[in-house]
Write a structure and sequence with these properties.
Layout: E1 2-8, E2 11-18, E3 21-24, H1 25-28, H2 36-41, H3 46-56, E4 62-64, E5 69-70, E6 80-84, H4 88-93, E7 103-107, E8 112-114, E9 118-121, E10 128-129, E11 132-138, H5 147-150, E12 154-162, E13 164-165, H6 166-169, E14 185-193, E15 205-210, E16 213-219, H7 227-237, E17 245-247, E18 269-274, E19 278-286
Parallel strand pairs: 6-17, 8-14, 9-19
Antiparallel strand pairs: 1-2, 1-5, 1-14, 2-3, 3-4, 6-7, 10-13, 11-12, 11-17, 12-14, 15-16, 15-18, 18-19
Length: 292
C-alpha cells in the first residue's frame, strides 16, 4: 500500500495513492485514524481493510494529486534517528574509515519539510548540502530485537533529503546543529509498505539529482549496516515505537567534497529517487526574515 499525508480544504488528512489520484480516507472511511502513525497502530487486518477501500471507495473520496498539498509523512515523529556514513564510499570521500559501529545522530520535527515544499537555506550560511537517503518507518514496538527478526518491525519506507548546513556541522564534534535547521529535512512523497519492496530495501538504486544533474548514484546493497542490523543495534539502546523514523545514510557524491564544492542555492531543484519509492522533489529558497 502507498499512503500520503496531505492538506486539502485547509484540513490535514491521509490517503491511499492510486496512480495519479489519492483516496481521501476521511471520506472513504471516517472511522479510520487520520494520521499515519495512528493508522499503523490501528488493527491487524489493516491491509485488507485498505484494499477493500481501494475497491469500493465512493467517487467523492478521490482527489487528484495535483489538487493537494503534500505534508511530511509524519509531522512529529517520536524519534528521527539518522545514520551517518552507512555507505563505505561516502565515508572515504569525507576522509574517514568505514565505521565499525553506526554513527548516530538525531533530527527534530521542526526540521521536516514536505515533498514539493521549499527547502530553506538559512541566512547564516551559504553551505547547504544535499544528502539523498532512504527512510524506514517503524511499525511496532521494538526493544532488544535480534537482526534475524529486525525487518518484522519495519512497516514501510520513504525518501529523505538530509540537507545539511556544512559549516555549522563542523562547528562541533557532534553533527546535530548542522542537521537541524528548520525546513531542511525533506520527507516523502509517500509511505510504501514493506511488502511492496525488496526485503530490507536491499538492492535498490538511489539517485540524487541537482537541477537534473546526477550527483549521487548508489545501491543499498552497499549499506555497511543493513536494515535488519540497524534494528538490532538501535533497539539494544532505545525502544523503537510506531512512527519512529530511521534515516539510513547517504552515498558518495555529496557537494562539499567536490572540486569546487557544490552547495544548493536559491532556485535549485533537488530530486531524490529510488526504485519503488518515487521521487522526492524540493526547490531551495533563502530564508526571508530571521527572527529578531
Amino acid at each position: 500500500m502507498r499512503i500520503i499525508s496531505f492538506e486539502h480544504a485547509a484540513q490535514q488528512r491521509i490517503g491511499l495513492k492510486v496512480g495519479s489520484q489519492v483516496i481521501d480516507l476521511s471520506v472513504a472511511d471516517p472511522t479510520l485514524p487520520q494520521d499515519l502513525v495512528s493508522l499503523l497502530q490501528s488493527e491487524q487486518d489493516l491491509q485488507s481493510r485498505l484494499a477493500n477501500i481501494v475497491d469500493n471507495a465512493p467517487e467523492q473520496a478521490y482527489l487528484q494529486l495535483s489538487d493537494i498539498q503534500f505534508r511530511p509523512l509524519i509531522t512529529r515523529p517520536g524519534k528521527i534517528i539518522c545514520i551517518g556514513r552507512n555507505y563505505a564510499a561516502h565515508a572515504v570521500e569525507g576522509g574517514a574509515k568505514p565505521p565499525s559501529y553506526p554513527e548516530i545522530f538525531m533530527r527534530g520535527a521542526e526540521s521536516l519539510v514536505a515533498h514539493q515544499a521549499n527547502i530553506i537555506r538559512p541566512t547564516c550560511s551559504d553551505k547547504l548540502d544535499y544528502e539523498g537517503e532512504i527512510a524506514a518507518i517503524i511499525g511496532k514496538k521494538a526493544r532488544h530485537v535480534k537482526a534475524e527478526q529486525g525487518l518484522n518491525y519495519i512497516a514501510g519506507y520513504s525518501l529523505f533529503n538530509d540537507a545539511t548546513v556544512r559549516d555549522y556541522q563542523r562547528k562541533s564534534s557532534q553533527w546535530t546543529i548542522g542537521k537541524n535547521f528548520d525546513d531542511t529535512g525533506a520527507f516523502g512523497p509517500e509511505f510504501v509498505s514493506a511488502d511492496e519492496l525488496p526485503l530490507g530495501v536491499s538492492g535498490i538504486q538511489l539517485q540524487t539529482r541537482l537541477n537534473g544533474q546526477v550527483m549521487q548514484d548508489a545501491n543499498t546493497s552497499d549499506f555497511i549496516f543493513p536494515m535488519a542490523s540497524l534494528i538490532e543495534i538501535l533497539s539494544e539502546c532505545m525502544t523503537l515505537l510506531p512512527g519512529d523514523v530511521i534515516i539510513t545514510g547517504t552515498p558518495a557524491g555529496v557537494g562539499y567534497v567536490r572540486t569546487p564544492p557544490v552547495f544548493m542555492k536559491p532556485g535549485d531543484v533537488i530530486e531524490i529517487e529510488a526504485q519503488g519509492l518515487g521521487i522526492l522533489s524540493n526547490t531551495v529558497v533563502d530564508e526571508d526574515h530571521p527572527l529578531q
